[in-house]
Each structure stands twice: as structure tokens, then as C-alpha cells.
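Hi support team,

I submitted a single chain yesterday and got back a structure, but I'm not sure I'm reading the C-alpha cell output correctly. Could someone confirm the output below corresponds to the sequence I sent? I've pasted both exactly as they appear in my results page.

Thanks,
R.
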Amino acid sequence: MPTPPADRPTAAPGPLAGAVPIATVRRGGVVESAHLGHVVLVGPDGAVLGGLGDPDVLVLPRSSLKPVQALAMLRSGLRLGGDLLALATASHSGEDFHREGARRVLASVGLDEGALRNTPDLPSDPELRARWQAEGRSPERLAQNCSGKHAAMLATCVAAGWSTEDYLDPGHPLQRAVLDAVRELTGADAAGTGELLTTDGCGTPLPAVPLSGLARAFSRLATAERGTPGQALAQAVRDFPVWVGGTRRDVTALLRGVPGLIAKDGAEAVYAAALPDGRAVALKVLDGGDRARPVAMAAALRALGVDAPVVAEQATAPVLGHGEPVGEVRGVDVPLLP
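Hi R., thanks for writing in. Yes, this is the structure output for that exact sequence:
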């Protein structure tokens, strides 16, 4: 066998290694495709209860990290509650109330959208995006799905007396506080997170974390003691799910349909959720597409005994032939450890 060039890796790094099917695509009863990835279930004590693939695979959590980022903001002096606190955790759809909410957060500390440093974008809601395009509207920072988080970051900086112009710098006190919270809640050591910082799509620093650590972070938020910032954050997500996602989003439907659940989807098909008793799920779909993400989460929640109607609704997605259903996308059953 020829020796590969020295600059070509001989093994797949990161989540490629150890990935297994976590969702299948059937057409006419035949398995046509499979989505590979990783799923982990953890208990209230953080112990792994089951899963598929590698529970400790290192992933970029993308927007699934937003509740942890928001917790760091609350600990640093952010004064938000209710719908606007939920918006701080959001990958929102850019609907009118989302954009107005971000304006309200900024106005509360004497700022406007000119202070935002996130990447301008069109709304992610398909109907609203199409309307903006038809009207010839340009991308805006407030319309970008992370504007609530960025507005909350700026409000945190004002409350803490930190500079606002460089709030995205990895060395900024805000971003150091976020990284401290990530390490604490995930249980990952510095070598597992702090040395692997990159930049998220919206411009914020992004650490890599073990998938099991992401699940543990959600478990800790879901079981945070009453009166703590973590409990306030979890309650805001539970009470205002449409602010976390949007009118037509699957994560919003899941939050509404499973009592006490907290959940957050992320780009490249990362997803994390926790039940009020502390059992939690985190998953990564290897191809980064959203088709398998909701069905894989439904399979994971079923493994934890959740039988809410919304889980049954999201357990499959239709495969169409000539515009008619001829098959389905379904999550692979997630085994529990003996």
C-alpha cells in the first residue's frame, strides 16, 4: 500500500472517528441513506446512561452553547428576565418581535444596533426571508439569529463596566467569564476547551467541548437551585420557547410540548436538551444537516421514557416521491447501558 503524503491525515479527526448511524432514510421500505453521528444520554449525576457512537467526542457546540453563555452573562451582572432572557439564549428566526426584543435589550443600557458586532443576515424564518428578498431588503445585524445574544453581551459589558467595542475578543473579560462557565458546567478541563477556541458564525469565540460535557451542562441548568441565575435562565427558556426559536421552529414545538424541558439547537446539527429531573441528551449529526437532527432527538428522548405527543410527531420526517410520502426519516433507537 502506498505511503500517504506527510501532510495528509491517515485517520479522520474529531467527530468523524467512531460515528455510527443515528438516523435512517427509508424510501419504499428500502434503506436509501443513513445519517452518521453521535448521541449521549446522561443522568442527573452526569453519568453516561447510554448513547450511540462516542459519548466523549469533541464537538463544536455552536448555538447549543448559548444557554451557558447567557449564564455567564447573568453571573457578570446582566439584568434581564422573562422573554428577553430567553432571547439571550436564542437562535431566533428574525421575526418582528425578536428584532424588537434585541432593540429593547440594547436600549436598556443606552445603546442601539450600531453597537452590535454580529454578522448581518436576513431573517432565518423562510417566509419572512422570502418577503425581505422580494422587497430587496439588505441583511441586518438585528435580523441575524444571534442578535439577542449579542445585545445581551453588550448589556452585560455595560453592567460590569467593561468595554463594548471589543466584546468579541477572546481576551475580553466577558469571553473569559463565558469560558469559565463552559469549563464549570461541562466538567471539561482546560485542555479540553480553552486550547481549542475558534470563531462561531456570528463572530463570538467558540470552544470545543466533549459531547457528554454539553449534556452535563444542560443537566446542571435544568436542575439549578431556585433563586440562582441558572434557575432563572432555565425558567425563561421554559416559559418563552418562541423567543428561543421562532413561530415555525421544531425546537419551539419541543419546548412547548415536553413539560419542564430546556433545549437548544445549533448550527451543523448539534442539539442538546435536559428534562427537569436532570436527565439530558446531546447529539451531533455528522453531515451537519438539519433533516436528521429532530428525529435523532426524538429517539433519544424516547429512550429516556418521554412519550409526549410532540416527540411522536417529531420522531419521523416524510420522504417524498412525486410529492407524496413514500418513506420516512427516523432516528435510530438509542440503547441504554445495562
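A quick pointer for reading it: Residues 193 and 208 are 5 Å apart (CA to CA). Let us know if anything else looks off.

Best,
Support desk
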